[in-house]
C-alpha cells in the first residue's frame, strides 16, 4: 500500500541518493536561490494526473490506482556548452530508466528541449509514474 506522500518520498529519496550533488535540486514549492548564482540546477516535480478505484470490495480491500508524471527541469546558464545539460539529462535517465523505486512504477523517460532565453538553457526529462493504494 502506497499513499501519495509515501510515493513522493520514495521518488525523492531514490533520486537524491543517486544524484551525488551534481547540482542543487529543488522540489515543488521550494525556493530556488541558486538561480541568482548562475550555476546549473534542477527542479523536480511530481504531478498526479488521473486515477481512481479499480476494484470492488469492502474497506481495506479496494485498490485505487494513481497515475502521473515525474518531471525534471534542467537549467544551465546561457552561453555554456549544451554538453553540460545533456550530461545532467543523461544522469537523470540513468537514475530512473529500468529502476525499481519502492512501490512506484517509473517508465518512459523522455528528454525534451524546452527553452533558450537570455539567462538559461532548459531541457526537461519526463517519466510516467503509477502506484496503487488499498483502502
Task: Identify the notable features of this structure and list them briefly.
alpha+beta, elongated, 2 helices, 135 residues, single chain
Layout of helices and strands:
Elements: H1 4-19, E1 25-27, E2 41-53, E3 63-77, H2 82-96, E4 105-116, E5 120-134
Parallel strand pairs: 1-2
Antiparallel strand pairs: 2-3, 3-5, 4-5
Helix pairs in contact: 1-2
Describe the structure.
There is one protein chain. The chain has helices at residues 4-19, 82-96; strands at residues 25-27, 41-53, 63-77, 105-116, 120-134. The chain has 2 helices and 5 strands. α1 (4-19) packs across α2 (82-96). The protein has a 5-stranded mixed sheet. The protein is of the alpha+beta class and 135 residues long.
Structural class comes to: alpha+beta
Largest sheet: 5 strands, mixed
Label the overall shape.
elongated
Quote the beta fraction: 35-45%
Mean pLDDT: 89
Radius of gyration: 17 Å
The helicity comes to 10-25%
- What ranges have pLDDT less than 50 throughout 5 or more consecutive residues? none
Number of strands: 5
Main sheet: which strands, in order across? 1-2-3-5-4
Helix count equals 2
Amino acid at each position: 500500500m502506497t499513499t501519495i506522500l509515501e510515493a513522493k518520498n520514495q521518488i525523492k529519496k531514490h533520486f537524491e541518493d543517486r544524484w551525488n550533488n551534481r547540482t542543487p535540486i529543488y522540489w515543488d514549492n521550494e525556493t530556488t536561490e541558486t538561480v541568482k548564482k548562475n550555476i546549473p540546477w534542477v527542479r523536480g516535480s511530481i504531478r498526479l494526473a488521473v486515477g481512481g478505484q479499480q476494484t470492488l470490495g469492502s474497506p481495506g480491500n479496494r485498490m485505487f490506482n494513481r497515475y502521473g508524471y515525474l518531471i525534471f527541469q534542467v537549467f544551465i546558464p546561457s552561453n555554456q556548452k549544451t554538453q553540460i545539460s545533456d550530461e545532467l539529462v543523461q544522469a537523470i535517465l540513468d537514475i530512473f530508466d529500468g529502476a525499481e523505486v519502492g512501490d512506484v512504477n517509473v517508465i518512459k523517460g523522455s528528454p525534451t528541449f524546452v527553452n533558450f532565453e537570455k539567462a538559461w538553457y532548459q531541457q526537461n526529462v519526463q517519466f510516467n509514474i503509477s502506484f496503487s493504494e488499498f483502502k
